[in-house]
Amino acid sequence: MSSKNWRADKRHWMHPWTHFDSFQEEGSLMMARAKGARVWDEQGKSYFDAVGGLWCTNIGLGREEMAEAIAEQVREMAYANPFVDISNVPAAQLAKKLAELAPGDINRVFYSCGGSTAIDTAFRLVHFYQNCRGKPQKKHILARKGGYHGSTYAAMSITGKSGDKIPEFDYIQDSIHHLGCPNSYRAPKGMDEQAFCDFLVEECKQKIAELGADKIAAFFAEPILGSGGVIVPPEGYNRRIWELCQDNDILFVADEVVTAFGRVGHWFASKELFDVQPDIITCAKGLTSGYQPLGATLFSDRIYEVISTGDADRYFASGYTYSGHPVACAAALKNIEIIERENLLERVVEVGAYFEQRLQTLRDLPLVGDVRGKRFMMCVENVADKSTRQLLPEELNIGKWISDRAEQNGLIVRPIVHLNVMSPPLTMCRDEVDFVVEKLGAAIEHTYHDLRKEGLLPSARQLIA
After folding, report:
1. Which of 125-129's residues contact partners 24+ apart within 8 Å by CB, and which partners?
2. Handedness of CA 276, 280, 285, 288 (dihedral sign)
3. Rounded Cα–Cα distance for residues 429 and 427 (Å)
4. Three-state SS at 250
5. DSSP for 328-359?
6. β pairing state of 38-41 and 419-422
7. What is the per-residue pLDDT for 2?
8. Which of 100, 282, 428, 438 is the most buried (most CB within 10 A)?
9. What 3-state DSSP class applies to 222?
10. Is residue 461's pLDDT more than 90?
11. Which residues share a beta bridge with 46?
């Protein structure tokens, strides 16, 4: 039965990534409340949210001390002008804390409102930096197919997910170049992981030679690709690409909007997991665990030294009304305090290993081609044929078939065409891991039988063809 809220939503709110036909027919699943990793719809049905909101509810929802910290800051000072020479206490304290947590000489912080705006800020900062150092010809950007960096203009242009590049939108095309996706499961036939890594590094070398290192400003990369399929690059790939950037005077921008703040067991994944020292790190999501909208572009003292000297009249003409919003920054400080106090990074390392192990048991199920990811950032890829890795027709939207059946059993997983993605709160325990794996496995089996019954699985002859 539809509620007045469901009808209001359907009539007035155009959601991000709205698929018009299906939304017009089905509307939304209306959520009413949440606690920890559980959410309840308007009818009172409970779900375990294995998506963690949208990669972001790291400490879980409904925390009283978060509510109090936010309310206290609202009472103390709900807003402060962030422009030029006015600041506020929470923003200054958070900037100092982020500098302490970030690797190397990344000691500078520019605030925005989310991950997309953090990327757009990084994009502008890169060009500003190159212009300030007298190299205005360095404008080209390298990124990767399958990478996702956001939905604002520059961020979506840098994004390399073909499914998100719909023809009705325009993109920057003349100066952004996408290299091969580091997905070992989809490597050329007969190529092992090391050979695939060599292949990708050589491709990058050739692109640098083709464009000219003196024309390339920066390389944008997620340490682990998120919405592009939870892709952990081949061993040594991130480090070798970073070294190429170092050797060719190309800035390395690590998009840690998903991986930062504990998702894979570290404050930031670049240095700790992949031995990469970025010049710029973008973050959002787990920065506040979704309690407030906040993004940050962190960058090195080396970059700041260049942009802040040489011209007495120079200023950084970019920013947002809500940059360094005191309430959002207060929420981030309390969020980081909770992660530290409850040792959630260590928990992710321990329970994440169990999560990886248990999800691997799904490989035996029909439709499951690959299970991949790291700790609390995992993905199941569904295929028509395990031996050839052939995909089901895209229009079938197999990930949605599976997620719909999982929801019937009280589990929310994220469908992305052929994939089902999981990024649960960092508080998830082993019993909850078992619940997720059991319900997801049942949904995959249920989907397989439904597809067979409706004659939607390709025949052996079709697979061979």
Report:
1. 125/280, 125/297, 125/299, 125/303, 125/307, 126/217, 126/218, 126/251, 126/253, 126/280, 127/217, 128/307, 128/316, 128/318, 129/251, 129/303, 129/306, 129/307
2. positive
3. 6
4. coil
5. HHHHHHHHHHHHHHTTHHHHHHHHHHHHHHHH
6. unpaired
7. 82
8. 282
9. coil
10. no
11. 40
Tell me if residue 31 falls in helix, strand or coil: strand
Structure tokens given for 296: 């940050």
Written as six digits, the tokens of 171 are 């993109």
CA distance linking residue 156 with residue 364, whole number of Å: 36
Q: What is the pLDDT of residue 92?
A: 98
| Mean pLDDT, the chain, whole residue set | 97
Q: Tokens standing for 155?
A: 């961020």
Q: How far is CA 226 from CA 120, 256, 460, in A?
A: 18, 10, 33
Burial of residue 4, with CB atoms counted within 10 A of its CB: 0-12 exposed, 13-18 middle, 19 or more buried:
exposed
Angle at 444 between CA 441 and CA 447, to 5 degrees: 150
Beta strand residue intervals within 222-376, DSSP E: 251-255, 280-283, 295-300, 368-374
In this prediction, residue 460 has a pLDDT band, given cuts at 50, 70 and 90, of very low
* Residue 465 neighbours by CB distance under 10 Å: 7
Per DSSP bridges, beta strands 419-422 and 411-412 are unpaired
**CB contact at 8 A, 284 and 151:** no
pTM: 0.97
**Number of C-beta neighbours around residue 273 at 10 A:** 18
Q: Yes or no: say if 248 and 208 are a contact pair by the CB < 8 Å rule.
A: yes
Coil, helix or strand at residue 275:
coil
Task: Specify the amino acid at residue 223.
Answer: P
The answer to whether 380 touches 442, Cβ cutoff 8 Å, is no
Least Cα distance to 144 among 236, 209, 224, 250 occurs for: 224
Alpha carbons 40 and 49: distance in angstroms, whole number: 10
